Give the backbone structure.
Amino acid sequence: MHTTVVNSLLGAIDDIGRDARRGGYSRPVYSEAELTLREWFTAEATARGLDVSTDANGIIWAWWDLPNAADAGDASRDGALVTGSHLDSVPGGGAFDGPLGVASALAAYDLLAAREAAGELHRTRALAIAVFPEEEGSRFGVACLGSRLLAGAIDPVRALALRDRDGNTFADVATAHGLDPDRMGRDDATLARIGHFVELHVEQGRGLNSEAYTDHAGRGPAIAVGNSILGHGRWRLRFTGQGNHAGTTLMTDRADPMVAAAQTIIAVRAIAAAQDDARATVGRIEPIPGGTNVIASIVDVWLDVRHPDDAITAAIVEKIHLDAQTIAAAEGCAVELVEESLSGTVHFDTTLTRSLVDSVRGRVPDAPLLPTGAGHDAGVLAAVVPTGMIYVRNPTGISHSPEEFVEDADADAGALALAEALADLL
Ligand code: GLV
Ligand code: MN
Ligand code: MN
């Protein structure tokens, strides 16, 4: 394999969705940028002779049918091997979170198709590449919205009522992009087609860079196999106070929800720091109305909490809620907490994971098993089909930021490892 295959595929979308203000990329689902990426994927897959379609939940499927399949609706797609990832990003995200898995899937397909043409691969099932919409939940608030709908992990009525920052409902946006809201939701016929799902992803923390795996020169294996995803959820805290004039309202006369929100954010950090293995983040806050000379009337604070033990996650959120209530009351404000999404800790399918380890270690003998703190569509699908993951080293250890990085050689090592793993499963 040429040493820049995967990153040159990504090179074609290098300019799409760049965010001059935040840095990196902002590619929210169904934005012009994400739609352009979908077109790019569709063109790449179609050029390879794959049969591309979009399902009722907005997931793109590119099918490599068995050579003797009768037609596209052929039952030979049932129990297929599926790989893929997502193309949407967080605001100001990196180039690899999502697109690396999609580009690697295309590169792996190229390797497998060449092997089949050479008579070296004899498949017993079809392969599909899937692209999931709204993995990040950056537009409608619920991460992995496409895979949740497919798997029945979210009520479609609730999903369709979700709103983006401009007030558009998911129902309206989906309709505008050719989807029928009445057909959205759990799709057993599509699920029956997924025999196994394998997602390749950039490693999003310092797992592969940790001392456990690196030598004196700080170099370790380029690839890991995933074994678990940390339980995580999102909540919104709404602080309500008295909107007022910044100049005429004495400091003693205020009920300022911004102050209550600020004190709660400090408490969030302290509560999480006191609990082993916990992570809690406030990455988004929105004052209403949001004027320099205006005491806010409402402040919305979004909370992300993660812990391996789901009961501890719940206890952390409960403690944050109680502290927020005490803080709000002292400021003359009120607070309400709303859960926006919750995903328990996921352990990937052990048989599939063992198979991925065996395949990947044929190329990268010291590839470790790695847990992750990041959420993925593979984590949602794990409830309904056997899933597994492959991670590619990220030398910066930084993600959800423009500094996320993957070296060319590692990206290609990832595609080779993915191809090996898929060949063994086909
Ligand atoms: C997605 O990457 C998440 O972990 O929130
Ligand atoms: Mn991702
Ligand atoms: Mn992400």
In short: The mean pLDDT is 96. The pocket of manganese (II) ion (ligand 2) is lined by residues 86, 97-98, 135, 201, 376 (CB under 6 Å). The chain has twelve helices and 15 strands.
